[in-house]
Backbone:
């Protein structure tokens, strides 16, 4: 397929590995903070291709994994209401809450529908005027604009029964918090699709204040290896900066139209991240102007008390301090068919990616 | 969910387009992008085209060999000038 196959070219990959080996003299650890990168890196076996002095670790890049269990519990509580239809991306459906999951609620008769796009949720709202349609908005800057369009379109269409339950988060506060916490890394493989929306400017502080290089990378092997090479060059020269590898998609200024939509609909508030705790101004809350579409403000529910899992170390894995294989439950008690934590359910989760591509 | 794929724009009807990903067709909203034409490639994410893909930049990215050649030449020069082995 165009724009995919040519970036998997074997010759190019080999050439890049050669160049990385030649250019790299220091022991370095690079972190990727995008679930898509976690998947690609495992799928293409990138760690095994690299010289031993380059270590790759995963950060908090899986939106489902960093979200609180309370979010799932509250979604489950909405699902239990007779007049509510839950619409959600497939990723969320099997995430375990404290005592239930959306999947279980669906089996028990709740109206839970997997949609591909928020536009499908709007359609469902139009066709079911007697029901409240709650759309579960989860994800970083890549996905948040579609939720914003959902709200803006609902407003335009005069829909009174569409509600967004937002758990949208932004990436830079987490990237800074990790370093503040003392996680030892030498550079970031920065998220390609988050940056498609935001542009390169959001990493300026990480490069200038924290002196860590950020290379915005695509998702194919050639992209990832090129990004690693770019970071290696920065490190060898001691010149941390923000660079874009994924230039065919990411413009330095990002997608301004999408940014304006985000700004119109959301305001930043403090938000909780698994592994990192509460980070200032890291979550996207619906502005008062669009309050009528805010599920949290408009639909009252009682949410059960949150129970966290014992033994699951997702939090430390999301911080890059532990590996899925350090978890005693990994592959034994916890697997994709019977997951304990969110990191094993979501395809973008580190545990899931390790299990699928890297079990031996 | 964060996954996005390159898709070719097959037809446009106001704010909606039909796009194809390796032969499979999808509906995509064009609400987030400007100036998209039939034949363009866009990045498709949760039913939205979130950016136009630049053909020029795509070709540029694949010029890995040339880039290395230039890089190595530059390094050689720097090493000669400074009398130090850089990498
Ligand atoms: S293997 Fe399962 S229990 Fe262990 S950290 Fe990962 S998701 Fe949690």
Residues:
């Amino acid at each position: 397929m165009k724009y995919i196959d040519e970036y998997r070219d074997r010759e190019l990959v080999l050439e890049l590995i050669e160049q990385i080996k030649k250019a790299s003299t220091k022991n370095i650890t690079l972190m990727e903070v995008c679930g898509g990168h976690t998947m690609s890196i495992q799928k293409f076996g990138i760690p095994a291709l690299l010289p031993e002095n380059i270590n790759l670790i995963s950060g908090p890049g899986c939106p489902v994994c960093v979200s609180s269990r309370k979010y799932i519990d509250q979604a489950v509580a909405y699902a239990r209401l007779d007049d509510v239809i839950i619409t959600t991306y497939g990723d969320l459906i099997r995430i375990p809450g404290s005592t239930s999951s959306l999947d279980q609620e669906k089996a028990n008769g709740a109206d839970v529908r997997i949609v591909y796009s928020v536009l499908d949720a709007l359609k469902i709202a139009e066709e079911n005027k007697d029901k409240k349609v709650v759309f579960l908005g989860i994800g970083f800057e890549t996905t948040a604009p579609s939720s914003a369009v959902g709200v803006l379109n609902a407003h335009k269409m005069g829909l009174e029964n569409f509600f967004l339950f937002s758990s949208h988060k932004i990436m830079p506060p987490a990237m800074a918090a990790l370093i503040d916490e003392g996680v030892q890394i030498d550079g970031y493989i920065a998220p390609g699709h988050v940056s498609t929306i935001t542009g390169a400017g959001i990493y300026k502080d990480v490069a200038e204040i924290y002196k860590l290089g950020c290379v915005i990378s695509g998702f194919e092997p050639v992209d990832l290896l090129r990004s690693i090479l770019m970071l290696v060059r920065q490190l060898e020269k001691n010149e941390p900066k923000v660079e874009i590898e994924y230039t065919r998609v990411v413009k330095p200024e990002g997608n301004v139209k999408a940014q304006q939509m985000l700004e119109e609909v959301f305001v930043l508030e403090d938000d909780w991240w698994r592994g990192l705790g509460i980070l200032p101004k890291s979550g996207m809350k619906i502005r008062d102007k669009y309050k009528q579409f805010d599920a949290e403000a408009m639909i009252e529910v009682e949410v059960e008390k949150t129970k966290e899992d014992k033994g699951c170390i997702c939090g430390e894995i999301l911080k890059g301090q532990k590996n899925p294989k350090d978890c005693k439950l990994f592959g034994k008690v916890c697997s994709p068919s019977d997951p304990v934590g969110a990191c094993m359910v979501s395809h973008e989760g580190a545990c899931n990616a390790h299990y699928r591509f890297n079990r031996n | 969910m964060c996954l996005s794929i390159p898709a070719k724009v097959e037809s446009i009807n106001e704010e909606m387009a039909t796009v194809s990903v390796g032969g499979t067709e999808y509906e995509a909203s064009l609400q987030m992008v400007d100036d998209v034409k039939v034949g363009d490639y866009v990045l498709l994410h949760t039913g939205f085209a979130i950016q136009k893909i630049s053909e020029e930049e795509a070709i540029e990215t694949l010029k890995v060999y040339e880039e290395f050649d230039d890089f190595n030449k530059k390094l050689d020069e720097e090493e000669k000038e400074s009398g130090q082995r850089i990498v």
Notes: The longest strand of chain A covers residues 277-286. The first helix of chain A runs from residue 10 to 23.
